[in-house]
Amino acid sequence: MHGTLETRRPVRLGAGIGLRLPHLAEVAAADPAGPDWPDGLWFEVHAENFMVDGGPRLTALLAVARRHPIALHGVGLSLAGTRMAPRAHVQRLRRLCDLIAPVLVSDHLAWQLADHAGGSWHVPDFLPFPRTRAALAQTIGNVARTQDALGRRLLIENPSHYADIGGHDMPEHAFLAELAQATGCGLLVDVNNIHVSAHNLGLEAFWLVDQLPAGAIGEIHVAGHRADSASRLLIDSHDAPVAADVWALAARLLARTGPVPLLLERDGALPSLPDLLAEARVAAMLLDAAHAG
Amino acid sequence: MPARPHARPGRPRARFEAWYAGLLQGAAVPADPALRRAVAVHANNAVAAACDALASNYPVLRAMLGEDAFAALARRHAIAAPPADPRLCLYGEPLAHTLARQGDLAAWPWLPDIARLEWRVVEALFAADPPARPCRLAASRPWPLAPATRWLLSDWPVASLWQAHQPGAPWPDAFPTHGELALITRTDDRITLTALPAAALPLLDALHRRSPLSRLDAAMLTHLPALAGARALVPAIGDP
């Protein structure tokens, strides 16, 4: 049987890295006092990968969680959709929170349940939607209900965009600000998403970052992207090192927010754990500057 | 004046989602090239994530088919039966069905059973841990199977085939020419797969039905030590 971790005391989070399955066993077995492990290191995992009844994967996550702060990042709540995730999914997330005692829990500003042949297709991506007043009202209801069911605050991640679908009543920063104000949720700002979206939609990334409600921001993501081979788009691919422009956006946002947890995400072409930790040192330096500033 | 149905909050949003879902599935192609490419990126991302999950859940089938043939199978399955649940680690149970409908695999008739076996391995990998305290055996009560225990009876030597495709496993001089009953267990967080005599199947079925030990006949009981030794049963104490 897995024990449940005790509720954590508040901790100051430094730079974190997205912990992917190929690195899980290595991190679970590693000595956290080793020279390569920076102070305040924390890990974020994809919540759905651990919504299982038992077994070695969950055992390894618990071993990591005993020594490092863990954040849960989900792609399954469909918070901006007309159909929310099934209640069973929310209950599974709640059980995982009870087991792991995560320091942060987040999901996407997206709808994720597409009709397919009379059933549902779960699309783990930022499917777009018109930011109407009706969409805001429904998202507020979905986030509030989910926070009530989880008994904790959620962070909501800003999407990446590949086309302007039109039909919006408000810009994204206003949508996010009203959502945070109405529900008390926080924001997870992925500055790579902002960089990619600004490029793809012809917007100015620094301006977009400057409009975000700094007080609501509870976490920042940085990640890599790549140029699309079939168009002039940038793809939010997470399969490359973080670009200098994206680090610059993170620095600019940190100057407004002060130090907030900063996470390096990498999903594709996964480098070794030491290489990821080395890249995360850039994040640690930005946080040091935010603390000093 | 009553509100028109489409003016109710949520309806235009639901229509938008249905429209975009149709685009993702190729029901229509947007005239706007930017939207066309955006839809393609989202569809490709979703199908790629599903295919990656299948590749992770079916490593032996992948090795038997080869990367290209498996990728084609996975893509066909992901488009026909995409994930309904965000837990992609539990995606792909009906892959054996998709495979069985594929006519050009007639020369390798054991492949659907390999897929069925690998799905049971996935189930075993993520099943609940056994209870920490041993159960007390009594003739009037069943001896519970461990939560991770699974099995498959096949006309093909699926256990031997699976074992030969494990990393570092020796390749046998020859595979058995008869079918096998493959038993899957999880011990100390590792999956173990063993071949049992087919005659052990009635015992597994009886234990699955939670038959009391007193109802197990002598022929069944002869296989009980093998199951206990393979940790297919929950830890127990007492002498029934």
Overall helicity of chain A? 25-40%
Order of helices and strands of chain A: EHEHEHEEEHEHEHHEEEHEH
Top CATH class of chain A = Alpha Beta
Instruction: Name the poorly predicted regions of chain B.
Output: 1-9
Q: How many domains would you count in the coordinates of chain B?
A: 2
The two chains with the largest interface, and their residue counts, are: A-B, 52 and 45 residues
How would you characterize the overall build of this protein?
The complex is a heterodimer of chains A (293) and B (240). With 293 residues, chain A is α/β, with parallel strands linked by helices. Chain A has a single domain (15-29, 36-292), classed as TIM Barrel. Chain A contains nine helices and twelve strands. In chain A, the strands form three sheets. Chain A has an eight-stranded parallel beta barrel with strand order 1-2-3-4-7-8-9-12. Chain A has a two-stranded antiparallel sheet with strand order 5-6. In chain A, strands 10-11 form a two-stranded antiparallel ribbon. Chain B has two domains: 1-108, no CATH class; 109-240, Alpha-Beta Complex (Outer Surface Protein A, domain 3), CATH 3.90.930. Chain B has ten helices and five strands; from the N terminus they run ααααααββαββαααβ. In chain B, the strands form two sheets. A three-stranded antiparallel sheet of chain B has the order 2-3-4, with helices on one face. The longest helix of chain B has 25 residues, at 33-57. Chain B is elongated. Chains A and B meet through α2, β5, β6 and α4 of A and α1 and α2 of B.
